[in-house]
Amino acid sequence: MAVKTGRFAIIEQLLADGIQYMFGNPGTVEEGFLDTLGKYYPDFKYIFALQETIAVAAADGYARVTKKPTVVQLHTGVGLGNGIGMMYQAMRGHAPLVVLAGEAGIKYDAMDAQMAVDLVSMAKPVTKWSTRVIHPSSVLRVLRRAIKIAATPPMGPVFVSLPMDVLDAPNHEKVVPTSIPVTRVTPEVDELAQAAAILANASEPMIIVGDGVAVSDAQAELTRVAEIIGAQVWGADSSEPNMNDTHPLYQGLLGHMFGEHSSQITLQADVILIVGTYVFPEVFPTLSGVFAENAKVIHIDLDTYEIAKNFPVNIGLLGDPKTTLAKLAIELESTITVEKKESANERTALIAEEKQHKLNALFEADKAVYDSVPLHMSRFAKELATYIPEDTIIFDEALTNSPELCRYIPATTIGRYFQTRGGSLGVGIPGAIGIKLAHPDKTVIAVTGDGGSMYTIQALWTAVHHNIDAKFIICNNQGYQILKLNILHYWREHNIPEHEYPSSFNLCEPDLHFDRIAEAMGVGSIRVEKPEQIGPAIQKALSYNGPFLIDLVLTNEIQGTKIGIKCGQ
């Protein structure tokens, strides 16, 4: 080519940064840019989604497992509008997405033409940074800035609008790898010493962790601190194994919907260490009184915005979780007294005993419904655990069925378990597709719900189109179970007697046969309705060469209620 244009320069920049995939859905104003992609085959691959929501969600899965900038292509204002829900998901989950959208051209700004829209303003609320390239001399400059911002903690999505006439103009910019700053920073020694002194003298210490721990790969350092002081560890805005689920000190997640559920736990502590998260991420948070009156609060994070955002802290430490917790552990071990260490060990033993007692009770309850029809998730999860390889990666969008899934397949290792975050339904199927692209040698399984899967069911086509060998399990309980649980809470809060759920909470009449839907898109599938079908179905899915879906028909009963079972069960 005599003169290289911006559309070629962009691909060369992405390749210089080690980016090989673009997730997207094509559109007219991007056609010149997309036409360019074929020139770089097979170095650069376009992952074709049938709707923008799927493109963003698949990229989100890829970005989460790689923790690297991941590119999404959307189609002007309408495509961006379709993708915004999942971009919000990525923002809440700190996924480093670089979202690109084309537009007709700067020369048409005054015309108010078809599909003309302020893309930058549309994207701004769901991104770390939103901008528009307005001159050919700054295409790569802006792109590198976008990649850097997306990849710098706290990571998150960015948006760049690309006018067609700018990309078609000659581009003379030099292609160089993006400079991404190192953020392995730690607080001052004196600040760490103050924090260690408070933690060492705690009688009822508690640690609240989020995905900043996983991003920093700080699970081991966090566990070490928890063991030294004998602290319960709870997750908040935690969707990855920030601590091994099976560790005696790990207690699970704080409330997701209602702040009162969280405060019942947090009020028990006299010292709280918060690491890599914000407090508190519930839908209906408690506005005050979340900590005991004289409790001391310490917060470690790379995101200063989150430190003391909603509630005061005694010590706020700007620092990378891995390096900061490692130094904090050294300080604690060198200063904690023998008496305090003995107290910590005694606390750990009591916490472990109580956790095991609760777990045993749950296992006993599972035995009572082991052979039930309709099936319970506990039966399926127990059998699934016996067949899958040890390094299987799970994308868990099971929601109301997640506790039973994790009871038998606990989240233990960073990079092998991902849970939905941000509130957007439909991330399970495309999320697993993105993860499988990043780890083609691993078994990748998405566990999602019937309601959530229907938001992005077209993603099955993408799996077949690109021969992405992920496995999908749809928990088919014929309804939005989480809405039923939430309205039960609402009724009790307002003293409303239990009655039939709103009809819009049920997914029946007609019944959704996910096995047939999958088959229509070329995905291997099977429907499981009885206990004896579980084992053979799992074995078939795992041995199948290509994407495979299990339509798992589960009970829609809500335990502890007097409301009749609907949808023919």
How would you describe this structure in keywords?
alpha/beta; Rossmann fold; 6-stranded parallel sheet; 21 helices; globular
3D structure, described in words:
The chain has three domains: 6-168, Rossmann fold (3-Layer(aba) Sandwich); 189-353, Rossmann fold, CATH 3.40.50.1220; 369-553, Thiamin diphosphate (ThDP)-binding fold, Pyr/PP domains (Rossmann fold). It contains 21 helices and 18 strands. It has helices spanning 6-16, 31-37, 52-66, 76-93, 119-123, 139-151, 164-168, 189-200, 212-215, 219-229, 259-266, 321-335, 338-368, 377-387, 402-408, 428-438, 450-453, 459-465, 481-493, 514-520, 531-543; strands at 21-24, 45-48, 70-75, 97-103, 129-132, 158-163, 205-209, 232-235, 250-253, 271-275, 296-301, 315-318, 393-397, 417-419, 444-449, 471-476, 524-528, 548-553. The strands form three sheets. The protein has a six-stranded parallel sheet. A six-stranded parallel sheet has the order 9-8-7-10-11-12. Strands 14-13-15-16-18-17 form a six-stranded parallel sheet, sandwiched between helices. It is globular and about 75 Å long. The chain starts with 5 loop residues before the first helix and ends in a 16-residue tail after the last strand. Its cofactor is thiamine diphosphate.
